[in-house]
């Protein structure tokens, strides 16, 4: 791989991790936001929801804009909005301004993720390690809470933390603007009528449905895991938290080995195997309450999204990849909200029924 391609690959990893850090910082900031603006939990719940809508909206929009504005410009736009959003949140004097910052945060993250993934798809096929790409996103999500906790324990204000993030986005924007490792590749814009025909194709429509179900299962499993192990299996809160950590560790390990599984088994065989492993994991968990089953579930979930994403991407024209990625990430947001809500609602009736939904 040429030096420019190596730099581009590393820069995409940096972008994915930075977008993850931005999104993952919001939950850690919510208690501070509540104190700062005298909000209760219900009142502050609008923030994360607006972030989620911003991410979904940006993903769908970037599906069209990437071909029109070009790969480099679309990512530059994401970095620029990231700078603006973090500065707005750091200087917010009321909750409405903070909500504007939340919205722009979601838009920035969505634009960066869709653009970076589309750029990644332009590397040589053998260098498109989607598992490692998404592992960097997971690494950002896993480390951010610990870093944020360290800052808060050290007495560092949330404004300073957000301004630090704006500096990271500024560094990314400068490197992208001055670097020669990527050109502003453009394609013929995709209109709404063409997009409609594109979505109707089975090779697109069916994976989007799978992305919805997958993302909803992943998010819901993590969200309601504490209730499952504390209320149903009578684990202590500390032990339930340990199980959650095991889940994410095995999930990240699954992402890291995705490339090896794809090469050894093939894309479809990997998807079939991970699906069977996921069903087996949930079945064992519900029948026995065996905590180690969560490691099996995490390992099965890890490779699914990157494998399916790469399998479809390599069959598309380059001008279509941006639209597919935007739709894919948008579908995960929709699936996350729908299935997460459904599992939360059914959990009030029975946790067994709730955790049977993924099966």
Task: Describe the 3D structure.
With 359 residues, this protein is mainly α. The protein is built from 17 helices and no strands. Helix 3 packs antiparallel against helix 4 and helix 6 packs antiparallel against helix 11. The longest helix is centred in the N-terminal third of the chain and has 35 residues. The N and C termini lie far apart (42 Å). The model has no long low-confidence stretch (mean pLDDT 82).
Brief sketch in words of this structure:
With 359 residues, this protein is an all-alpha fold.
Could you give the order of the helices and strands? HHHHHHHHHHHHHHHHH
Helix content: over 70%
* Low-pLDDT segments: none
Summarize model confidence as the mean pLDDT.
82
> In one word, what is the shape?
globular
Radius of gyration (Å): 20 Å
**What separation lies between the terminal Cα atoms?**
42 Å
Find the count of extended strands (DSSP E, 2+ residues): 0
Tally of alpha and pi helices = 17
Task: Please summarize the sheet with the most strands.
Answer: none
Report the β-strand fraction as a percent range.
Answer: under 5%
Structural class: mainly alpha
Characteristic key phrases:
single chain; 359 residues; mainly alpha; 17 helices; 0% strand; globular
What is the fold's blueprint, element by element?
Elements: H1 3-37, H2 41-44, H3 46-69, H4 71-91, H5 95-120, H6 130-153, H7 158-178, H8 192-200, H9 202-223, H10 225-232, H11 237-256, H12 258-265, H13 267-288, H14 293-301, H15 304-313, H16 318-347, H17 351-356
